[in-house]
Amino acid sequence: MTRSYLVKGAIAVILSVLIISVGVLFLLGVQEPPAEDTDLSLSNVDVAYYNGEGAWGTDEIVLSNMTEWMGCSFTTVRGQDIQGGCLDDYDLLMWPGGHYPAYWDEVGLEGKAEIQEFVSGGGGYLGICAGAYYAADYMVWMDDDVYPPPEYKVEGDELNLDLFPGVAYGPIFEIADRPEPGWAMTEINLVEQNHPITKSMPNPMTMLYAGGPYLEPYDDASVSILGEYDVTGTSAMVACEYGEGRVFLIGPHGEIEEGCDRDGWEFPPDIPEPDDVESDWPLYRNAVRWLCKIDVPSSSTTALAGSSEMQVTTTFLSRQSYSFPEKF
Hints:
Elements: H1 2-30, E1 46-50, H2 57-70, E2 73-77, H3 79-83, E3 92-95, H4 100-120, E4 124-128, H5 130-135, E5 136-141, E6 164-170, E7 184-190, E8 205-209, E9 214-217, E10 223-229, E11 235-242, E12 245-250, H6 281-291, H7 301-306
Parallel strand pairs: 1-2, 1-3, 3-4, 4-12, 5-6
Antiparallel strand pairs: 6-9, 7-8, 7-10, 10-11, 11-12
């Protein structure tokens, strides 16, 4: 009797341990991976960042912090580097906002050919604001009839990169008048939420606008319109392929983290800093993954959107550096 009771008790204890162990393993299995999970690593992505004439200095600080958060390497290049074939060493070319005609002057037709070869061979191009104007087949600056100068308004062998089959129009006065204030916070409505770039992103998204374009594809172009300006209903974010490579263009400055110092930039003391409820860095990380053809595991999409923690050093800029781009 006693021996039988002890055996039954031992079996009950063993079964309880097994049940608890299986339960723990099950819970571990369904938990989402942390943001640092190797599935989300971009440590093998080498980014070339244009920092030559015309580049907005603030973007170098912000985007270097952002790519560090992603885990990418970040190297600045100039027009002569591009002309010399440096892009062979990189996976992605990132082009900032700034002063658009200066890009033509420094990069020229020789650099344009190198960029086209890089992207058509499988590289990625991410253009922000002026970097989006520059990537279009054609641009229209609606603030001044003689800007850009007439010699730039040509078809055929013009200095635009021609990576995006369409026209870049700007600035958008309905969002921010020029020259003052020249910028505003604006809502971007996502219109294709199943694309790898926009998947799992909040809708709408709020971003800083500072003279960027809206992007109108040609009628027969194969282009994904990912987001539209809420104010005008025109395209704010587009994605397309160019040869074997990929292109992502965004008119507003989603890389600026309003109300957060991790981007390393602060608004001027005389300008009240706006508050943005969400970070747009996960959108850029999705874009980098798509541009570099890195699959995102389905179990990691929520972690991609939710990850935001990183310590960075904030760089205090001079008042002269605070100014937004004169043109775009």
